Every structure is written in structure tokens, then in C-alpha cells.
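Hi R.,

Here's the chain you asked about this morning:
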Amino acid sequence: MNPERLFVLACLAGTLWCGGCREHYDEPPISLDDFEIVDDFRIEVVASEPLIHDPVALSFDADGRPWVVEMQGYMPNVEGTNEDAPTGRIVILEDRDADGRMDHHIVFLDSLVLPRALTHARDGILFAEPPNLWYVENRGDRPGPRVLVDSAYAVGGNVEHQPNGLLHGLDNWIYSAKSSARYRFIGGTWVKDATEFRGQWGLTHDDYGRLFYNDNSRQLQGDLLPPNSTLRNPHHAVAYGIGVEIAEDQRVYPLHATAVNRGYVPGVLDSLGRLRHFTAACGPVIYRGDNFPPAYRGNAFVAEPAANLVKRNILHEDGTRLTARQAYEGREFLASYDEAFRPVNLYNGPDGTLYVVDFYRGIIQHKTYLTDYLRDEIQARGLDTLVGKGRLYRVVHGATPPGKPPRLSDHSGEDLLPYLTHANGWLRDTAQRLIVDRGLTTLAPRLAELAGDTTRPLGQLHALWTLEGLGALDPAVLAATARSPQPEVVAAVVRLVEPLAAGPDAAEVWPLLERLADDPAPAVQLQLALTLGRVAPPAEAAALSRLAEIAGAHPADSLFHHALLSGLAGKEARFQALLKAQETAPPASTPS
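And here is the predicted structure, written out as C-alpha cells:
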């Protein structure tokens, strides 16, 4: 065979192996002048078509490479014909010349029908392709056999109303939006567990593990109580504490007249035809990176693709309550004049910046709900012609260059430990996941040391939950961590003590709980309200007495009432009798 033919065949083989990747792409002209962004921030293109098409979600691997879900079948026209065609993909993006812009891709999976979510787990990925949730091992950027994790992950409904998100919680469970199930790999198998129902599209958590989400018209909701704490008592339905409306202000400020599904309803649009309030809120993220100034840490960013913008909210904590206010009056953190800019998901990046997944297409309303009004608007504006595109952006603060993500896949267990205290939350989360996924129990002594280091509270939290994930927590570590001055760390200790206190080790751990019961911090008192009702004999009576004190200290606080009742399954009558006895007891005499 002649050398030229060998060269051609080699090129074809290389193309097949990498799924059609090539080093140079004819990228479309993208004008960043179409965007308005606040202060000293800038928006940068990370990837665009033809490198990616119709992106809806992503997950970064241990080396910081974005793996992108492409929902190419979604609404190819106003009729939504052939929507179930197997055109969806999961692609791996790479920046081989390290200039901050992706220049290479690998098709990891193709021929998928409307894939909608993924996350990295163990040595591969979990991904959702309705109705199934799959696990696939990554074998050198090639897929191993598929393992069916859940055949009923997304059953029924339509594309706008099916589970998604696949978020690793601080507690080592994987949660989804629009779902009442969570998942975890335990004892060599994937386990599905019931949890509270949350949100519609997108899921995030803060530094303390609290979950946040939204629905299309309410931009930010969240949990004031830990996951699954409200499901423990079949005799009491918890009515407050999960799905709390954190942001009550739903106003938005688009840059141009907007085409939305119910634009004909009075009050939906203003006099200039601009959307007034959220109608497609999705993809929330609590910023936990290290590129933005300190004032932005813990802020909530929410996408509104119908109005082509990203909202910033500043969270405020008052005791056990959370509220949010919009950061700007009359403008947005990020907005575009381009009607095809469709931010559908936001993420903390390995480099400390904020990533924006832009579906970049004309039609985002599913045919199930598409009104004649919006159909006419779409066709009049030519939006039905914008298909098969897609962009990935990152938002960078001008004064701070983005970080360079380390190759954590190459790190040994010892090398991963410093990242549990890193300023970038993505690095902390990923280090915890890798240690747990690899079962690195030999790190338990070092993790115990970190858990007791009161100078690094976020490191304490991750050390505790890493030990929990390894099955290596013990009462001595919890007692040492409980000396932390950070209330959220102490509250985590109380939460992690609970399984021990509810079983045969109750007598051993009760002195710790009794000591912590004197901690006045609201976060600690709320977790005690959740935990004390679970304490088993011989410490049960003392725990119920302490719980009665908490009830008396919060006589009109519904959050505390729901919290304590959620842990009293089977003990309600005894606790009620205790409260009545305290009410009728004579007051203590005052020494003369």
C-alpha cells in the first residue's frame, strides 16, 4: 500500500477514535459586544459550534475537562418533529494549547435520545437518558459497558418536567432536581433512596451543603433542613423547611423586547415588550469559586433563558432563616441583546470562574406548552432557524486571572488532602469525591487531624463528610471537631452523631450531645431539634428533656416545631406528657 493511502487511512482511524475531532475549527463569529456585564467582569468564549451543539448540562472531570450533554433532538422546529431521534451526545472538551479556549473534542457517547444530565462518579459518569439513569466506566476516554442504575429515573412527563441535575451533595449522596430520589454507591452497588422532592431544572449547594433550586417562575428556593430529615416521622408531615422561597423578588431586566409564551397576558410584558418577571428560571448556582471578589462568595446566580440574562442575588442569613435580595436595581449581572443567548445551566468552574452553558437556539419552549402567540413570534423573528448551535462561556473578574486546574486524576491520596481546604469549592468537592470513590481509608488519621483543625472550618466540614463516606467516623473525631467556633461545623457534628445516638452507642455519645445542647448558636439548636428526638435509651429521657427546653425557647417558630416533630416518631405521646408536666410544675423557689 502506498504511503499516501496509509496516511489517509490513519487520519480516518484517528477521526473515528476521537469522534470527529480535529485541531482547527471554523468557529462562528461571536460578538461579545452583544453582552452587558457589571463592574470589572468580562465574559469569555470557552467553546462554540461546531465543537459543541445544543449543550444543556456539563460536568468537569478530575482534570477540569468539561464533559457536555448535547440535547440535539430538542424542538428542531415549531412542531417538534423527530424529537425522539437518537441524536444526543456526551462530548469531552479539551484545551490542548492551554489558552483558555477549547480546541479539541471527543465524542464519548452518541445516539442518545434527549440526554439531560450527567455527573462524574467513581471511574466514570452517571448520565440520564429518560427513562434511565446509567453508569458508564471511563476507559481512557472510551466508554465501558453501561450499568443500569435506575430504570425509572425519568418516567413520564415531558422534556421540561423530568429529573435532571445529578449533584454530588456534601453528604456523599447524589441529588436531582424535579425528583424525589437520591443515589449512592454502597457496598459494591448503586443504591436508590427516597428524598424530598426538589425544584424543576438545576440544583446547587452552598459551602455548608444546603441545597438550592427553583422552578420556572420562582428563581430561588432552598432547604433550611438537611436532606431526608423531614421524612422520618410517618405521623407528621413537615410543611416548612424544605423548598422555602429564598428570593421573593422575581423581577427581571432584559435588554430588549422578549418573545415569551404568555406575552399576550396583561402584565407579563412592560410597555416596551420586555419581560417583567421570571418565566423560565433554571440552572441556579451558589458561587463558591476563588476568582471573584470576596463579596461574591455565597451569592446565588440564576439563569433566565427566555429573557437572555443571568441574575445575581445576595443571600442574607438571620438565625436559621435565609433570604435573598437582587444585587442590582434595574439591571442584571449579565444580559444579552442576542435573542438566541439561552443560558440554561450555571456552574462553578475548576479555575474558580463561573461557567455559563448557552443552549444558543431560537426555540426553548417545548411543544407541549407552545402557544399560538409564541409560535407566531418565533416565526416572525426567524427564531425557528436557529438550531444546531451552542456555546460555553466563563465569567472572569478582571483583576484575577483564572486558576489553572490541577490534574487531580494523577494525585495520590496524600496529594488530595490539601485540596479539602482550598478556597475554590469545586476543588474541595472533587477532592472529597475522589477520596471517597477510591476508598482511601488509609487517609483516616490525616482526615481526623484536619477535622480537628478549628482554624479551617470548611476543611473540617469536608474532612468530616469524607470520613463519613469512607465509613471511618468515630466519636473521638466528632468530639474533637465539635470544638470548632463555626456553628455550621458544630451542627454537622450533631447531625453525624445522630446515627450513633439512635443506636446501641447512645450512652457513649450522649455526653457530647448534652454538652452541645448548651451551644446557643441557631444552627446548632436547630440541628439539636432534629436530632434529640432520635436518641435511644438509656439517654432517651435526658434527650427528650433537653428537647423540651428547645421547644420552650422557640414557642412560635414553625421551623423548630417541624424539626423536633420530625424526629419524634413513636415518642410523641411521651414528649407531649413531658411538656404538660413542665407546664404544670410549680415554679422553682427563689432563695430568700
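One quick note: Confidence is low (pLDDT under 50) at residues 1-23.

Cheers,
M.
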